[in-house]
Design brief:
4-stranded mixed β-sheet
């Protein structure tokens, strides 16, 4: 054998189990660089998801721009609701715009179809109690809403919300009637009174 003996301290005999010298062993133990035995440097690469897309690379190469959170009709509803909550219901409720159903609901995660049905959908407004428990969902539907499979989308939201004990109402802005602030205020006052008074009575 051409292996070099490794001399153990105080042993007085050669040990060829690893075929390297004691000097080499000391070099490894003390961290002395040895270019012939150091593994090549490895660069971390993000894992590629099962769908085959490199999401990190996609995020880096995409140009993003901010956009307004609420459109004109939604802004009208927001300010009216906020004013009403600060009046008769001061300190009792919060209004949260553009909330994902995945943040409002819990469901059986063993059913992937249920997750797909509701997780990515959002609602225009959610009114919560002071501890941020959802009480009422308000949807603001303008002309752009009533496209494609809008009926199915709306029904999924309604079924999921009401099954969880959250009231659900939608406002139709297509005819322009609710764009009148006084009419909108009257409509929302009635909705909040019906839902929130019942909610208080049930506590």
């Amino acid at each position: 054998s051409n292996r070099l003996p490794l001399i153990r301290e105080n042993s007085g005999r050669a040990d060829t189990a690893f075929g390297i010298s004691r000097a080499q062993t000391m070099s490894f133990q003390s961290g002395t660089p040895d270019s012939t035995r150091q593994p090549p440097a490895r660069q971390w690469k993000p894992p590629i998801p099962s769908d085959g897309y490199d999401l990190l690379a996609a995020a880096r190469r995409t140009r993003y721009r901010k956009r307004r959170l609420l459109n004109k009709n939604e802004q009208q509803v927001f300010w009216v609701v906020l004013k009403l909550l600060k009046g008769d219901y001061r300190g009792m409720y919060h209004v949260c715009p553009q909330v994902s159903l995945g943040e409002l609901l819990q469901w059986d995660n063993t059913d992937p179809a249920a997750t797909k049905a509701v997780n990515s959908k959002r609602v225009d407004f959610c009114i919560t109690d002071r501890e941020f428990n959802p009480v009422l969902i308000i949807e603001v539907n303008g002309g752009g809403h009533f496209q494609s499979n809008w009926q199915e989308r709306d029904e999924i939201k309604q079924i999921a919300a009401r099954a969880a004990g959250i009231q659900y109402v939608s406002l139709d802005f297509r005819d322009g009637r609710l764009q009148n602030k006084d009419v909108l205020t009257t409509e929302l006052t009635a909705i909040l009174r019906e839902v929130l008074v019942k909610q208080q009575a049930s506590e």
